Amino acid sequence: MTYRLSIYDVITGQINPVLVTERLIEAPNWHPDGYLLVNGEGLLFRVNLDNPDLEHIRIEGLEHLNNDHGITPDGTTLIVSNSPEPFSSVIYSVAVQGGVPKKITPQSPSWWHGISPDGNTIAYTANRSGVFDIYTCPLVGGKEQKLTERFDHTDGPDYSPDGEWIWFNGAREGSMNLWRMRHDGSDLERMTDDCSDDWFPHPSPDGNHVLYLAYEAGTEGHPRNKDVELRLLSLSEGKTRTLLPLFGGQGTINVPCWNPSGTGFAFVDVLKDDGGS
After folding, report:
1. Which letter, b or e, does each residue of 215-247 get, where b requires 16 or more Cβ atoms within 10 Å of its Cβ?
2. Which domain, by its residues, includes 94?
3. Residue 64 belongs to some domain of the structure
4. What is the pLDDT of residue 9?
């Protein structure tokens, strides 16, 4: 497989490839200083846009990182999820340059997805009783709070830029849609109800749009190497438009990927043997 890291400009629709590699890369984040982070084969890498290459960020004792990672709003701290065995993921924090990590979630499995704009609270999906629900807890660790009920499966929580809402994808009666709720779990609203399975919502920095990944209806989970679409939901218009069909899925936009200005986002797709995506 060949993997391509690119930037999509939402103003012009232009796609700017950053890095093409045969090494597995997934789930780009955008650091406030302008470089990207990606996951690959259990490790985390920095990618500078002016000299794109994979620069390993060494995190002591964690060599099974999954693709659920991110950056605190002030840019000083990384949040990573480590899975030495299947369904054993634990969330840690570590300095942005790497080093010795600190455990945040005492229980597993827990997969990070979002952080509040003030940097104090993380949102994640976790399985505590046979069902994947949305939880929050302090970045420094502490008691977790369960926010969702009566879903078959939930995933991908990400905060709105004002901190008032948590967006996520959730399944009830088989279909996977986008939802949002207040940061305390109240005022639940379903935000999409279309002929697709919708995953990983990411509000834009200005709060006006939500980027997400759409699979064909009936797709089980969020597999990689599928024909999918990147879509943009306008909150003012209540309408969705397709930005880009691509070959990808798992690892394309699992975690927050907007640039700080909100003019674009980073994503990963897979090049097919014929060179197409």
Report:
1. beeebeebebebebbbbbbeeeeeebeebbebb
2. 2-271
3. yes
4. 98
> What is the average pLDDT score of the chain?
96
For residue 248, what is the domain's CATH number? 2.120.10.30
- Count of the separate structural domains present in the chain: 1
Q: What percent of the chain has a predicted confidence (pLDDT) above 90?
A: 94
| Structural domain includes residue 153 | yes
Single-letter residue type at 242: T
H helices of the chain, where?
none
237 Cβ neighbours under 8 A, 6+ residues apart = none
Q: Three-class SS of residue 220? A: coil
pLDDT at 194 (0 to 100)? 87
Question: What does the alpha-carbon distance between residue 193 and residue 221 come to, in Å, rounded to a whole number?
Answer: 17
Residues in the chain: 277
**Sign, Cα dihedral of 10, 12, 18, 22:** positive
Helices (H) and strands (E) in the chain, counts: 0, 23
pTM (two decimals): 0.96
CA distance to 65, 75, 118, 144, 166, per residue, from 86 (Å):
11, 30, 32, 22, 27
Where do we find the tokens 């701290």? Answer: 77
Q: What confidence tier does 273 reach under pLDDT thresholds 50, 70, 90?
A: confident
Q: Is 276 contained in some domain?
A: no
How many CA within 13 A on the CB side of residue 80? 33
Sheet of 209-216, strand order: 196-203, 209-216, 226-234, 239-248
DSSP 39: E
